[in-house]
Amino acid sequence: MSEYWMEEMHTDGYKVSWKITRILNEEKTPFQELSVVETREWGRTLVLDGAVQITEKDEFIYHEMIVHPVMYTHPRPEKVLIIGGGDGGTLREVLKHEEVKKVDMVEIDERVVENSKMYFPQLAQAFAHPKARLFIEDGIKYVKETDEKYDVIIVDSSDPVGPAVELFGLDFYRNAYKTLRDDGMIVVQSESPVFFQDAFLKVQKYLKEVFPYKFVYLTTCITYVSGPWTFTIGSKQYKPGKFPDDKKLIDGLKYYNEAVHSAAFALPNFIREML
Ligand code: SAM
What we know:
EC 2.5.1.16; 2 domains; 9 helices; transferase; spermidine biosynthesis; about 30% helix; 5-stranded antiparallel beta sheet; binds S-adenosylmethionine; Rossmann fold; Spermidine_synt_N_sf; single chain; 7-stranded mixed beta sheet; Spermidine Synthase, Chain: A, domain 2; Spermi_synthase
């Protein structure tokens, strides 16, 4: 098949075009339209319901930034829960922290995991780690029903459409709060503050209602819809402003470091005004 342009629609007036050199797989799972394509600029790319989730070349930014700020803020993140994250990138980063004893991951769509094993082995290798357990289940139901308690919960969800809608809801955060230990922390990918302002503001409102402390931080994921990308932390006790003096940075990270940690929490005025 010859090359073609894939259009990723962001609003009625804004779209991004990607040159596709090869389609590796296209399928309709019970939850979403899934495709894995080879792109000219960004290498292999996973697309769910028309939205790019990860690309081979820049996935490290999102995965390092969703994981390390919260994992370095919690003094002993031994037991971690990941909701979503079916490609395995978040799991890979969590397992780099030696103090971690157990990671449970709850992904609703087994086909995302299977496609990652087939096409993104550098991410999916984490599934074979002895500290990792994978549950194919709805994360909303899991936090509602589980008796387990975690130090850290990481919500690596897709955009608030289809099965991910309720991952941005108040009940989910209330159940996540109860699933955390007394000094636990949650971090959620809270979308673009420009293109998904409603979702971003909903996360702010609900996490503020449920947790004593809430913090927003930013990064730039090059291949997500343009501009800053937000993450939001809800915390029962700890505050993440600065990299802790008593911890050592993991070797070999490509994005996150001590200075990036502090800088990520500096918010421009237009975002401060939204909060
Ligand atoms: N980095 C990505 C982004 O922001 O574009 C997110 C990547 S990850 C592939 C998102 C995952 O969340 C998907 O695999 C999707 O199946 C999963 N997911 C969506 N709703 C879910 C739910 N209710 N419970 C568990 N996993 C869910």
